[in-house]
Amino acid sequence: MQIAVAIVGLLIIGAVVGSLIDFGSIFLGIPIALIFIGIVVGKEGFDRQRRILQMKRFRREAMAQQVDFTPEDKRTLV
Fold this sequence. Notes:
The chain is an all-alpha fold. The chain has one domain. The protein contains three helices and no strands. Helix 1 (2-21) packs antiparallel against helix 2 (29-62). The longest helix has 34 residues, at 29-62. The N and C termini lie far apart (62 Å).
């Protein structure tokens, strides 16, 4: 909902600026809105990719590692 309000706001601001520059360029808000949508989608994609890489790093760090037990350790395990 917040993104929709922001897009409508950008369209209105673009229309006002476009009409101030030239009455025929009221459609200046459409490219601005498309740029905004691209930024939002790109940011979500980068956040998703960052979370995926973070999860891969956590999985690598959590992998089991071979441990060599000393004779004292073996004696306490029995």
